[in-house]
Design goal:
By secondary structure, the protein is an alpha/beta fold. The protein has 2 domains: 6-216 and 394-416, 3-Layer(aba) Sandwich (Rossmann fold); 219-390, Rossmann fold (3-Layer(aba) Sandwich). It contains 16 helices and 15 strands. Strands 1, 2, 3, 4, 5, 6, 7, 8 and 9 form a 9-stranded mixed β-sheet that branches. The protein has a 6-stranded parallel β-sheet with strand order 12-11-10-13-14-15, sandwiched between helices. Helix 10 (255-264) crosses helix 14. It is globular, with a radius of gyration of 22 Å.
Length: 417
């Protein structure tokens, strides 16, 4: 069971606006022991968590996994992915478990050729049967996609949380009804969390209880990269200086920026780690100094990071990146790596403004920023300043503050009932 770190129990990750809504936050320094005791009591009897997500659990380990694995130490977690469609499928739910059995990954198998309405009807029937068989009459809904409302309206949760980590309507191939369903989600949700400050600003007027929880970090995991870990075989032969990116390579990735900087400096080598989705791999720039190593699991990331000279965030500036808060930013910094990023709002504020990360948008300015970052590798003052900032950030603290808000909301809801 996770314990609360009383030295790290302030509302560091709540925005100023969010703190105003909670009278200086849930876990402030006043009566901390009492508040922690109440939350631990809440966790001892927390309802099951039912998450509806557009993301595959095993695709990339990110925000949902960081938060939900912590809930799974106190309650059963049912993580519903989007369906698999294929010819001849018999409608059913497949359930697999992770990490000791408390994490249940649930995915519907459905035949090709169904209309959206037919697909929803079959999923509703499967969900109703599943909830009845599991005796799920006391649970918390945790949504990552408003589209799931189409198949869950009939169910009655004790609490509904919408963790809005991205502006999904801006992504390539977004369903036309997404905005309409998000408006419905704001009506149904008891709490709304956002994945960064920019998206908080965009959503704060749509619900009375919206709280910003920007990208956080598992410091112990990524500081391993400072220890000079053994080289992975597929990276060992890549020359230095070596610059890296890990993450999903999709419409958010600035292909032309990578093409430009690699052409300007053919003596530099660029390592790209991650799956390619929603874009044609043939469109990716190809050069002797660009190395695509494919997807890696979360445990491997510090090993690859360890020997990069500078870490990169070459995001395109478009609608899909307008509100993102890259989890990679604090992860790269925890690994002790200088970072160069395009001017993503939630990277500029706070990391760029604090001079922890270099910001550039064109191939020429990006190259100049990388040159500055290279000189920063042995800058003890920069590293100390970076570590001081990161000392107030952790997924444990983020999760604890979320739990506190949930405890308050559930109590108030019960009192009203």
């Amino acid at each position: 069971m996770l314990k609360f770190d009383q030295n790290n129990s302030k509302t560091d990750l709540l925005s100023k606006e969010a703190m105003n809504n909670t009278e200086s936050g849930c876990l402030d320094t006043n009566n901390t022991d009492s508040k922690i005791t109440k939350i631990e009591a809440f966790l001892s009897d927390i309802p099951d968590i039912v998450c509806m997500s557009h993301l595959r659990w095993d695709f990339v380990f990110q925000r949902p996994q960081h938060l939900l694995t912590r809930f799974a130490q106190h309650a059963n977690l049912y993580y519903f992915e989007e369906p698999y469609f294929y010819d001849g499928a018999q409608p059913r739910l497949e359930v697999t478990t992770r990490e000791g059995g408390n994490i249940n990954i649930v995915v519907a198998h459905l035949p090709n050729g169904l209309t959206p309405q037919e697909s929803d009807e079959k999923q509703i029937a499967l969900l109703d049967q599943f909830f009845a068989e599991k005796g799920l009459d006391r649970f918390i809904f945790w949504y990552y996609t408003p589209m799931a409302l189409e198949i869950t309206r009939q169910l009655k949760p004790a609490l509904t949380v919408y963790d809005c980590m991205d502006e999904l309507s801006a992504f390539k191939g977004a369903p036309p009804r997404l905005r309409e369903l998000e408006a419905e989600m704001f009506q149904k949700a008891d709490l709304v969390f956002t994945g960064g400050h920019s998206i908080y600003e965009a959503k704060k007027d749509h619900h009375k209880d919206v709280y910003a929880f920007p990208s956080s970090i598992d410091k112990a995991h990524f500081t391993q990269a400072r220890q000079g870990l053994p080289e992975p075989e597929d990276q060992k032969s890549i020359p230095h200086p070596r610059f890296g990116f890990y993450g999903v390579v999709d419409e958010r990735f600035d292909i032309e920026l990578l093409r430009g900087i690699s052409a300007l400096r053919p003596d530099w080598h660029f390592v790209i780690i991650g799956p390619v989705v929603k874009i044609d791999p043939a469109l990716l720039p190809q050069a002797e100094n660009i190395h695509y190593l494919g997807g890696k699991n979360y445990k491997e990331l510090p090993v690859y990071l360890s020997t990069w000279d500078v870490a990169l965030l070459p995001f395109a500036l478009n609608e899909s990146t307008k509100y993102i808060s890259p989890t990679k930013t604090p992860e790269y910094l925890a690994a002790g790596k200088p970072v160069v990023s395009t001017s993503i709002k939630d990277v500029v504020r706070p990391y760029g403004e604090l001079n922890l990360v270099h910001i550039a948008d064109t191939p020429e300015t990006f190259v100049a920023a990388i040159e500055k970052a290279l000189a920063q590798r042995d800058d003890a003052e920069w590293l100390a300043k970076t570590d001081d900032y990161l000392s107030g950030i952790s997924w444990d603290t983020t999760w604890q503050n979320m739990v506190c808000l949930m405890q308050i909301a559930l109590t108030e809801k019960a009192d009203r009932a």
